[in-house]
Design a protein that fits this description.
Blueprint: E1 4-5, E2 20-25, H1 28-42, E3 47-50, H2 57-65, E4 74-79, H3 81-84, H4 89-101, H5 105-121, H6 130-141, H7 147-156, H8 163-177, E5 182-189, H9 196-204, E6 206-209, H10 217-230, E7 234-235, H11 237-246, H12 251-265, E8 270-271, H13 273-279, E9 286-287, H14 288-296, H15 300-310, E10 316-318, E11 321-322, H16 330-354, H17 365-371, H18 373-376, H19 397-407, H20 412-430, H21 435-448
Amino acid sequence: MPRKPFNEGDVPSFPDAPPVILITGDVDFFVTEAAGKAAGRLGEDAEVLRFEEEAPAEAVSDALMNRSLFSARRLVQFDISRLLGTESPAKLLDQAVEAWEAGTPSGRRDAFRRARALISALDLPAGTPAEELAEEAARKTRRKPQQDALLAILRELPEEKGGTAVLKDALRFLLERGNDGTVALVTATAPPAGVDLLEEIGKKGLVFTATVGNDPKPALARLARALAKEREVSLEPQAIDRLLFQTDSDPELFSSELQKLIQWAGSGGRVRVADVRENVDDDSSEDVYAFYDAIGRRDAGDALSRLERLFSNRAVRSGDWELEKDDDSWPVIFLGMLTGEVRRMLLIRARMEESGSGPDASQSYNAFQARVVPRLAEPVAPFGRSPFENKKGTVSGFLWFKAAARAARYSTPELSRALARAADVDVRMKSSVPPLDALSVYVAQLIAGT
């Protein structure tokens, strides 16, 4: 099913819109944010009907199937996560209980939404008593300890006449009828692949995916500030930075841990850096490439924090490969990897400067592959081969593209000095200086350009 990243400029005007536009994503906040922008574009000169989770299915269905009495255009906006289900019903149950325990109006609404999606995902019959639903859902998801909390949610869950079948039929009717004055703007968080209705919307409607872009940190920080303000919790900027670090800026994990912290703090409470350290697990593996990227950004704080993680008891990855970490040999191995990257940065910078221009951090990979890689593959006399070749005799375009992007913020003399100092670091590590201390000084000097 074709999907495209959400961009407000790609949302068609109402007359040109398909009958159903779906916005999906892994995090509710960004899905809702994108839907608001889309509604602003589609809703001009239109009657806009927004339905909350507790709205009866028949009311939403009537709005979709009947034309407006007050306007030639009608935009109907609602969430269809409950219609599509999820690949992880157990996760839905956990999220419903977490939202319910927050004890806020928004938490209740979120709990109801996830409970309905859970019932749909497990294909439990409508009209079943709450006690039986809770017991069956807890059994199927293997969440027996959560049964009582789920039962409390289901007992309060507003009755829904018609159920999900009515809404599915209405959306399918709208897809067949086309845009004759009514457009549905629907949202779904983390829907599973292969659902029939999702595929039908992809074919006859339009599907956007709300993402946080290549650099998720600004968007996630915005999410943190917005959620803290909504829950009346004071959130220190340094706590946001620490949470970004401990979750590796993973949007879904960041959102989940953020909500737990804010719930823990409570209305009027405060979340500090120490609270993040104490309450958020930081047991994930560390990727050496994330460390290299921090060096490329000349971000000393992030680089040194990641260096500390690389020498902690956590696993270390190089992309998809997990590296062996022998206590005695790891410092020397790591120094070799680091100086190897510095050498690549120096080599690619020097070659690109010889061609008339240095590396550009904003250059796309396609442009780099077309313009730079062919020059890197040229053999050098008297060796008859390129210094950029790998053991297989080919040039890895992406490897050198990343090295060029990291080298863009450095000068050739800075990289040359760093490479020349590597031997001194090796000597210091083999003497009385702790390896992490010696490497920390080396990385700090590299980034400082001294």
